[in-house]
Amino acid sequence: MGDDGTFEEDMELADYVPTRFLGSGTFGKAFLAVDKRNGNKVAIKYMAKSDFSPYVFREILIHQQLQHPSIARFIELRLTKTFIAIIMEAADRGDLFEYVFERKGLNDEEAFWVFYQLVEGLAYMHAKGVAHRDIKLENVLLSGDGNNPKVKLCDFGFSKRVGIDSMCKTVAGTFTYVAPEVLEKESCRYDGASVDMWAAGVTLYAMTLMAYPFEHPKDPMNNVKTAERILNVEYRVPKTYSPELRSLLRSIFVPEPNERITAERLAKQMRRHLPEELLTQAEGESSVCIQSEESVRQMLNEVVKECESEEFELLNDVEDLEITDIVDDGTEGFMDYKHGQGFTETLRSIRDLTSQAA
């Protein structure tokens, strides 16, 4: 499948009319479309069945189960002869990275509002036992009118179910957003929810100051120096930075994950400082998938049978594949937000340095 924006014949879906090419990536192609049944705009992500993997299975099933105003609504799953089509809520204002860039940074009020919605979405996910593990500007979509856009968290490719007896061990996400505990040792097992909160703090800093807090100001491309600053929790904010936002960062950028503020607690604190009209807007409507979990699971298992992939053969029971069957394997999953490159070698260098220092 090429990335030229061509709408292929096998992509046609009953009930949906494509209107615009949105982009392409490792997932395949995405198009804006209109639902002929109600006139609503939707986004459709197409992935070739040949690219299907256990991790895509997990991403789709987790996303289908998340129903919150701050999470891009999963509407339904469709299958064609060669494609998997994920239909979801369209966000008509692009992503937070674009929004911040166009506005040359957000003011305190805008940032507080956007960040509050992000934290509410994370609080919901964490209460459901799910860690996102790739929180960043690009994975926060926006919709609505005016200066109070609605947040729609998206891209659950690194998401994982976590709990008291289920810690994360795969290094996942985007390097400049990573928490210190992920860098510290080779055998690291970490709390995905705490790591989400650290990345949310980086997102808040970036949306207000248009910079990443832990990059070395004179050598931003040097990931080892970035890692050293992360481990030392070394960042700066200007004297003009608001006390409210400064306090938020201080509660998040805590090296010990057990002492880092949780999304639930932070959302409660922030709620006290928002007007009732915005809180009502944030609550929104319950977003419900029009397909049952069982229906989506059956469709995915159909694709599994078609794939005949060695990745799926490693799993014991294709007939009843569960999210929990897909476990972290310790694979390094860092992505460089600038180049999209893996960071296995960099990570080894960093861990060598930290072990020597210890």
TrEMBL record:
GO terms for molecular function: ATP binding; protein serine/threonine kinase activity. One of its GO terms (cellular component) is cytoplasm. InterPro entries: Kinase-like_dom_sf, Prot_kinase_dom, Protein_kinase_ATP_BS, Ser/Thr_kinase_AS. The keyword Transferase applies. It comes from the Eukaryota. Pfam families: Pkinase. Keywords: ATP-binding, Kinase, Nucleotide-binding, Serine/threonine-protein kinase, Transferase. SMART domains: S_TKc. One of its GO terms (biological process) is intracellular signal transduction. Residues 16-279 form the Protein kinase domain. ATP binds at residue 45. Belongs to the protein kinase superfamily. This is Protein kinase domain-containing protein. The lineage of its organism: Eukaryota, Rhodophyta, Stylonematophyceae, Stylonematales, Stylonemataceae.
